[in-house]
Design a protein that fits this description.
This protein is of the alpha/beta class. Helices cover 32% and strands 26% of the residues.
Length: 288
Amino acid sequence: MTIWNLGSINIDLVYDVPHLPGAGETLAAGSMTRGLGGKGANMSVAAARAAGRVAHIGAVGADGRWAAELMLEYGVDTRFIARVDAPTGHAVIAVEPSGENLIMILGGANRAVPEDLIGRALSEASAGDIFLTQNETNGQARAVRMARDLGLKVTYAAAPFDALAVQEVLPMLDLLVLNEVEASQLEAATGLDPKTLPVADVIVTLGARGCRWYGADGVRDYPALPVAPVDTTGAGDTFTGYVVAGLDQGLPMPQAIAQALRAAAIMVTRHGTADVIPDLKDVQDARF
Ligand code: RIB
C-alpha cells in the first residue's frame, strides 16, 4: 500500500553550541551545517528507509528544489511537491553536546501548499492506504477529511503542538502520535487523557524512556534502547515514519513500535536530520 504524507519540507540550519542559549544570550556556535529537514520530510524519508512506499504532498520555493530532488533520491515519490512563490520553509536548530536541541521554524512554502494539490494526490490513493500529516503545513483538516472519506487510515503527529489543530482532526484519526508534553497540553485543552481520547491507537513518546501505546487491549510501555545521544533532532520523526511504515507492511503494533524504537535509537547517535535517518538494514543489524 502507499503512505500519503502531507508534510513540511525544511532547510535545516544546524548550529552546534556549547549549551542551549538563554534569553538575551549571544552564543558562538562551533559549526553550522545545512541539510534536509522538516517533520514531514523526515517522516517521509524514514518511512521510505523502512522500505515503505511513500508519496509526499508539500511545497517548496525556488530555493528548495534541491530538497525535493534529495527526497526523490531517498526513495520518496515527489510528484506532489509543488513549487510555489514563497521561500522554502526553514529551521534554525541549536544542538548542545548532550544532544538536546532548540528549534525555530519559518513555515514559508509549507504554509502555501496549493489546495487542489491534496485532492490531485489523493485521487491516486486506494482504500487501506495510510494518510499521515503533522502540524507544519496548511490544509491538514481538509486533507484528513478527504483521506478519511476515501477509506485511508489516518495518522497525525501533533507537532508543533496546537490544541485547536489537533481537536479539529481528532475524531477522524486512527493513530495519534504525540510526546508527553503535547499529551498534557491536549489533556489541558480537552479534559481527555490519552486513554480516553476518541482515537483507536495513541502513542505517547517519552524520549529516553521509550514510549507508551494506548490501544484496544490496554496500555503498554516500550523502553528505549540504551544509547549515548549526540543529537536528538528528528528522532521522533524517525520513530513515527518507522511505525507507519511497519503498520503499512502489516506488522502488528508491538513489532512496528519495537522496530521504530531501534531506528530512533540509532538516529540519536547521528548528527543531522533527514540525511542520516537509518535504513532498515542498519536497524535490523544494530546491536544495542
Ligand atoms: O523534528 C525535527 C524537525 O523539526 C527539523 O527537521 C525541523 O525542520 C523541524 O521541522
